[in-house]
Write a structure and sequence with these properties.
Length: 682
């Protein structure tokens, strides 16, 4: 595999020159502006199929040849996409099978994009032909940095081909034994038993086991499609392959994609705006941090930010501008969490069609005299000064479990709460105390290897996939500290409830059993009173939404409910188990509980913070290590000036394109949305 993709911090953009071929002056201007903005890479070909193969079997690469030649002469590397994210009209009309079928059984019309059938042999054949041609022609080009496989894989198809493949997948999963499938799906309920595999040709959402298998299958089929594309390229090119994943998208289990990719990248579109959206209580910086960490953790290696907007998006009900400095803040946050590239959607605003008002480096105005272009260019020069950061790692001793299969099961189940379940937000609430304190966190699926971690937080771990409870139990026995919550340990991988008391196979390690779960109306609260002084917390914390009614077995009570008929009963417990301990938080408590509780645990476990100093609210530090340095990014998420000092010696700060020694006695100023970039020799 070629390794030049690890050579520096890339500054790139999706580039669509095919929209401007009739205007050579614009293409020329692009090159000048790319140099000016310190753009080091352009991602091309993402939606170019109709230009590459305007009629079946008739290929035109000349225009792409000249784009690539011009970019290379101009010193931009390129990321080359396979064009399968959008299919040409002629193909969709001639071969209806490549178009998706909805869950209602209707063949979709050819429109928009990202809507091919992942199973269709015909589509796979067409894709392999174009991919192979691209790979033969450009696969060994010295300026080719990476393959961008398709675009934002997602969605499912309910066509006969997909159901045929699903049935085969199920036969393999269940060793051709329909009885096992029926038992796992609990299918006698409402008379949903299957008497032949062929009957499984629609998705019956209340059959939770079936729905889970369908989502697993669609993930499998999409990964298989992606691998089919990679296989078409590989004989002709040893350049790394990736695909751009989406933040907040949980329709496919991204964890299954990771092993097949050479590196991970993702597209981030949080609602950056102005001061109203940032600051310590804001969810925007937190959301981005959590996702950066999740995508980094997928391979435990630096990732790329393949897309972000340097300005607005255009697909929200309301799209705020990124206020001055906010783009730099978001870009450097990417680096802080393990990113090795900041790339944009898009280089130049398209003139027509649906994304014409989406933010871009070059606006319709067309030259460098815009605020956004100016900010992008300054950032570009700064990224050049950070080349030595490329490849630096993040070492986390804390993991937050965030498991897509578990999320699917929580969405499916109909239980005490059918609204306001919020497992994603709950995970971020448990992540936030670490983020605020500069403690590195990996965000991992429940099947990850837990051995690198001292502390694992597993909020709402409703579904216990095979081996998870066993691994957690052994890991605690060996000295790990586990924190889990209400609505954990209820069901197995088929969404069949554990019998004999929740939290099922976690009962022993937690030393409790959960008899009932109360759901509170939005206007109702309970409160939970701290009983044990060793927690170093005082008073009471508000409980909402979920309150488990638990019995302690071997666990010790740390806090109790104050209200309702379960007043006085355990609400927070700890179980000493082997060399470790396992905490159970029985109710959804106000976030100040998590904050104090996890701060206490972090201190107790001596978890290292990126910078050993008290930072102002809304200022966070993150650390990476590599190439002989410890790199610390101190970011001010506030729209107001902040400052900090550090007593740690040996740091330098990057300012005005030069590293200058950081004086431990001096106050470091952070202007609004500023990030101080520090490093010191390891
Ligand atoms: C996605 C797509 C891009 C573009 C952007 C707009 O990330 O991959 O092609 O549509 O959204 O935000
Ligand atoms: Zn299909």
């Amino acid at each position: 595999m070629t390794e030049n993709f690890r050579e520096k911090i890339w500054h790139g953009a999706d580039y669509n020159p095919e929209q401007w071929l009739e205007t050579p002056s614009i293409l020329e201007e692009d090159l000048r502006l790319m140099r000016l903005s310190h753009l080091s890479s352009a991602s091309i070909g993402i939606f170019s199929w109709a230009m590459l193969e305007p009629h079946e079997g008739e290929f035109h690469f000349e225009w792409l040849d000249s784009v690539i030649e011009n970019l290379s002469k101009n010193e931009q590397k390129f990321v080359l996409a396979t064009p399968s994210g959008a299919k040409p009209h002629w193909m969709a009309l001639r071969y209806p099978e490549i178009r998706r079928v909805t869950s209602g059984g209707q063949r979709e019309a050819q429109k928009a994009r990202h809507n091919h059938c992942p199973t269709s042999p015909l589509y796979r054949e067409k894709v392999a032909i174009i991919d192979e041609k691209l790979a033969r022609r450009y696969g060994n080009h010295p300026a080719l940095l990476a393959w961008h496989i398709s675009n934002e894989f997602g969605g499912d198809c309910h066509c006969d081909l997909c159901f045929g493949a699903f049935q085969n997948w199920l036969r393999e999963r269940y060793n051709d034994d329909l009885d096992t499938l029926n038992r796992n799906y609990w299918s006698r309920f409402w008379s949903h038993s299957y008497s032949s595999w062929e009957e499984i040709n629609f998705i019956d959402a209340p059959v939770h086991g079936l729905d889970l298998d369908w989502r697993r299958f669609m993930t499998h089929q999409t990964v298989d499609f992606m691998n089919h594309e990679i296989a078409a390229i590989r004989p002709h090119s040893q350049v790394p392959a990736t695909t751009n994943m989406m933040g907040d998208f949980t329709g496919l289990d991204y964890a299954q994609f990771a092993p097949h990719l050479d590196f991970i990248c993702w597209d981030a579109y949080p609602q950056w705006g102005n001061g109203d959206f940032l600051g310590d209580e804001s969810e925007v910086g937190l959301w981005a941090a959590f996702h950066h960490d999740m995508f980094r953790s997928m391979k435990g290696l630096p990732f790329w930010l393949m897309e972000c907007s340097p300005a607005q998006t255009n697909w929200r009900p309301v799209s705020k501008l990124k206020a001055p400095g906010v783009h730099r803040l978001s870009a450097l946050q990417t680096l802080a969490h393990g990113g090795d590239a900041v790339m944009y959607f898009q280089w130049r605003q398209s003139r027509g069609s649906s994304e014409k008002f989406h933010g871009a480096v070059v606006s319709h105005q067309g030259n460098e005299n815009t605020r956004v272009f100016g900010e992008v260019s300054v950032l570009g020069s700064e990224l050049e000064d950070l080349s030595a950061l490329a490849g630096a790692r993040t070492a986390a001793r804390v993991a937050v479990i965030y498991d897509f299969e578990n999320l699917w099961a929580i969405y499916d189940e109909q239980g005490p709460r059918n609204e306001g379940k919020n497992p994603e937000k709950t995970s971020r609430d448990f992540y936030k105390p670490f983020w605020k304190r500069g403690i590195s966190v990996d965000v991992v699926p429940s099947t990850a290897d837990f051995s690198p971690y001292q502390l694992i937080v597993a909020p709402m771990l409703y579904m216990l996939r095979p081996g998870v409870a066993e691994q957690l139990t052994e890991w605690v026995r060996a000295g790990g500290t586990l924190v889990t919550t209400y609505w954990s340990g209820l069901a197995d991988e088929n969404d069949l409830c554990f019998l004999g008391g929740f939290p099922g196979p976690l009962r022993e390690v937690l030393g409790i059993w959960v008899e009932e779960t109360d759901a509170l109306h939005p206007h109702q609260t309970n409160s939970v009173h701290i009983e044990d002084p060793t927690l170093q917390m005082e008073g009471a914390f508000e409980a909402r939404d979920y309150c488990d009614l638990i019995h302690t077995e071997t666990a010790h009570i740390l806090a109790t409910y104050e209200k309702d008929f379960y007043a006085g009963r355990a609400a927070v417990t700890v179980n000493k188990f082997g060399a470790g301990r396992a905490f159970y938080i029985a109710a959804r408590l106000e976030t100040s509980f998590q904050d104090q509780f996890l701060a206490h645990l972090s201190a107790d476990l001596q978890l290292p913070s990126a910078l050993n100093t008290q930072l102002p609210a809304g200022v966070v530090a993150q650390k990476r290590e590599g190439n002989g340095f410890e790199w610390v990014f101190v970011s001010n998420f506030n729209g107001s000036q902040q400052s900090f000092t550090t007593s740690q010696s040996g740091f330098e700060r990057l300012e005005n394109r030069a590293w200058s020694p950081l004086d431990t006695s001096a106050t470091q100023i952070l202007t609004p949305y500023d990030t101080a970039i520090l490093r010191r020799a390891l």
